[in-house]
Design a protein that fits this description.
The protein is α+β, with helices and mostly antiparallel strands. The protein has 3 domains: 78 residues, Uridine Diphospho-n-acetylenolpyruvylglucosamine Reductase, domain 2, CATH 3.30.43; 111 residues, Uridine Diphospho-n-acetylenolpyruvylglucosamine Reductase, domain 3; 83 residues, Alpha-Beta Complex (Uridine Diphospho-n-acetylenolpyruvylglucosamine Reductase, domain 1). It has 8 helices and 19 strands. The chain has a 5-stranded antiparallel sheet. A hairpin with a 2-residue loop joins strand 16 and strand 17. The radius of gyration is 19 Å and the shape is globular. Its main location: cytoplasm. InterPro entries: FAD-bd_PCMH, FAD-bd_PCMH-like_sf, FAD-bd_PCMH_sub1, FAD-bd_PCMH_sub2, MurB, MurB_C, MurB_C_sf, Oxid_FAD_bind_N. Cell wall formation. Pathway: Cell wall biogenesis; peptidoglycan biosynthesis. It is found in: Cytoplasm.
């Protein structure tokens, strides 16, 4: 398989038995059999087609921000698009490749005095991940500004889809169910005033840095907001703040976060998530739904 992969992409972009904890925000996860980092859309298509032809498992990693990889790692081919990072601006439209950080897209919008993406200035994920889960914060979400996207389907075909074709809802889209790989997104923004846009972004950045436990590795907000409640408040009121399993801890700074405080394993992190869900269900009869993805195999 290695020889076939390096016939498509440079050997520098194929890693064998690569520890995925080096590529996730939680610093968790076992090894990938093959981790590939394509640099062109055609390479993405060819790798998908190779996986299909060889009947080998294929997994898209994204930039690893909203993700937990289990301790047993991932078999087959794992793809990371962190080398597709172009951001281009044409009047009020921004075309950003999927590996670009959505934070950087919001900053590019600021530099061109375009408004609409201020909410994304503190979201750590990639453009592809932002579309995958219709990422949002502080009252804004991707579906408010997305015009269209270019994707590769499970057969390796290149498609251009409108935002309406993605079924974007609260923290969800049809991208995972359809098996799409996002390659780029076109955002439609509006002209604004630099000082006003920057003031909003500075305020949101301050709120994020003062309230979120950025000093430890984490997957970000673990749970979706349950209707009529706030996940962090439910967890806090359940007496779970500071609760620890192994090296994983419910953050003392923000109860909606679970941090890798001390060399946690993925198993410890996942066990703590389940403990939080069970406790909140028992105390408040509210089922917390995970926002974070869990992939890979147990040891």
């Amino acid at each position: 398989m290695y020889e076939k992969l390096v016939s498509i992409i440079s050997p520098n972009n194929v890693m064998v038995d690569e520890p995925l904890k080096n590529h996730t925000y939680t610093r968790l996860g076992g090894k990938a059999d093959f981790l590939v980092t394509p640099e062109t859309y055609q390479q993405v298509q060819e790798i998908v087609q190779l996986a299909n032809n060889e009947d080998i498992r294929f997994t898209l990693l994204g930039n690893g921000s909203n993700l937990i990889v289990k301790d047993g790692g991932i078999r087959g081919i794992v793809m990371n698009l962190n080398k597709l990072t172009s951001i281009q601006i044409n009047e009020t439209k921004i075309v950003a490749q999927s590996g670009a950080r959505i934070i950087d897209v919001s900053r590019a919008a600021l530099e061109e005095t375009l408004t609409g993406l201020e909410f994304a200035c503190g979201i750590p994920g990639s453009v592809g991940g932002a579309l995958y889960m219709n990422a949002g914060a502080y009252g804004g979400e991707i579906k408010d500004v997305l015009e269209s996207t270019t994707v590769v389907d499970p057969e390796g075909n290149l498609l251009t889809l409108s935002a309406d074709e993605l079924d974007l809802e609260y923290r969800s889209s049809n991208i995972p169910n359809k098996g799409y790989i996002v390659l780029e997104a076109t955002f439609s923004l509006r002209e604004g005033a630099y000082d006003e846009i920057k003031a909003v972004m500075d305020d949101l950045t301050f709120k994020r840095e003062s309230k979120q436990p950025l000093e430890y590795p984490s997957c970000g907000s673990v749970f979706k907001r349950p209707p009529g409640y706030f996940a962090g408040k439910l967890i806090q009121d359940s007496g779970l703040q500071g609760q620890q399993i192994g090296g994983a801890q419910v953050s003392l700074k923000h109860a909606g976060f679970i941090v890798n405080k001390d060399e946690a394993t993925a198993t410890e992190y996942i066990d703590l998530i389940r403990h939080v869900q069970a406790t909140v269900k028992e105390k408040f009869d509210v089922q917390l739904e995970r926002e974070v993805r869990i992939i890979g195999e147990d040891l």
